[in-house]
């Protein structure tokens, strides 16, 4: 079972990998965006880490809803409201339970991903974070490792796609040949989940 401590670890591990990969995320956002994705997320996860240290929420759901709220207020750009919605809606779906199973988390994550799809209007294949999140949520029913692999594959598979949503879509054909920054950061988020679950 996964407790609030596990969810705090998920957020902290993700904050560390966002720090490590910030330059790469911003570099990916340079040819097909406005070169701010790494700095946007770094600002957000720094705020999340600080808040979770200061006042650790008692339930998995509360860890995610607090984190989502902070991402909405601190990340900005397109990804702030989208990631904020993902975590808030996933957290809300977990309810007030003090421990949840991986299967329950998989179900909640699907709810969160659906909310992101509704907010951003992106479908799989549109070259967005959805391309990493949808396969990850599906694979999480099997294992953390399967979710990590599915998210990474989904992110890599955005390269040959033409963007249909977000800033990259303004480039039309010229968005082809570049990996989507948001799908890449979503793979980091899911990798953080696998890391938090242990070696
Ligand atoms: P901005 O594009 O406003 O500068 P970011 O650079 O932080 O915001 O985030 C860009 C990422 O957000 C993209 O790589 C893409 O994955 C994701 N994104 C943008 N628009 C959408 C959307 N409508 N639905 C889902 N994801 C989106
Ligand atoms: Mg950007
Ligand atoms: Mg921007």
Would you give an account of this structure?
- The protein is an all-alpha fold and 199 residues long.
- It has a single domain (2-196), classed as DhaL domain (Serine Threonine Protein Phosphatase 5, Tetratricopeptide repeat), CATH 1.25.40.340.
- It contains eight helices and two strands.
- It has helices at residues 4-28, 37-54, 60-74, 79-94, 102-120, 130-139, 144-156, 181-196, and strands spanning 2-3, 99-100.
- The longest helix is centred in the N-terminal third of the chain and has 25 residues, at 4-28.
- It is globular.
- The two termini are 16 Å apart.
- The structure holds adenosine-5'-diphosphate (ADP) and magnesium ion (2 copies).
- Residues 29, 33-34, 36-37, 77 line the site of one magnesium ion.
- This is Dihydroxyacetone kinase subunit DhaL.
Topology:
Blueprint lengths: L1 E2 H25 L8 H18 L5 H15 L4 H16 L4 E2 L1 H19 L9 H10 L4 H13 L24 H16 L3
Antiparallel strand pairs: 1-2
Bound molecules: adenosine-5'-diphosphate and magnesium ion (MG) (2 copies).
Keywords: Kinase, Transferase
GO molecular function, one term: kinase activity
Protein name: Dihydroxyacetone kinase subunit DhaL
Regions with little confidence, pLDDT below 50 for 5+ residues: none
What is the spatial order of strands in the main beta sheet? 1-2
Number of strands: 2
Task: List the domain count as a whole number.
Answer: 1
CATH fold-level name: Serine Threonine Protein Phosphatase 5, Tetratricopeptide repeat
- The radius of gyration over CA amounts to 15 Å
Keywords: Kinase, Transferase
Domain DhaL: 5-195
InterPro entries: DhaK_L_YcgS, DhaL_dom, DhaL_dom_sf, Dihydroxyacetone_Kinase
Protein name: Dihydroxyacetone kinase subunit DhaL
């Amino acid at each position: 079972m996964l407790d609030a401590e596990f969810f705090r670890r998920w957020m902290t591990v993700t904050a560390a990998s966002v720090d490590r990969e910030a330059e790469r995320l911003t570099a990916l956002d340079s040819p097909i965006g406005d070169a701010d994705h790494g700095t946007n997320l770094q600002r957000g996860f720094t705020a999340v880490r600080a808040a979770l240290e200061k006042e650790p929420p008692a339930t998995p759901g509360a860890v995610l809803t607090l984190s989502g709220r902070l991402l909405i207020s601190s990340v900005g750009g397109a990804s702030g409201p989208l990631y904020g919605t993902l975590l808030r809606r996933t957290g809300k779906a977990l309810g007030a339970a003090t421990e949840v199973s991986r299967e329950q988390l998989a179900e909640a994550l699907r709810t969160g991903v659906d909310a992101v799809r509704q907010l951003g209007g992106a479908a799989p294949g549109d070259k967005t974070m959805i391309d990493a999140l949808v396969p990850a949520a599906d694979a999480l029913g099997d294992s953390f490792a399967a979710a990590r692999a599915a998210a990474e594959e989904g992110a890599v598979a955005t390269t040959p796609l033409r963007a249909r949503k977000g800033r990259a879509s303004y480039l039309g054909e010229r968005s082809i040949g570049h990996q989507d920054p948001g799908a890449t950061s979503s793979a980091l988020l899911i990798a953080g989940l696998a890391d938090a679950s242990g070696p």
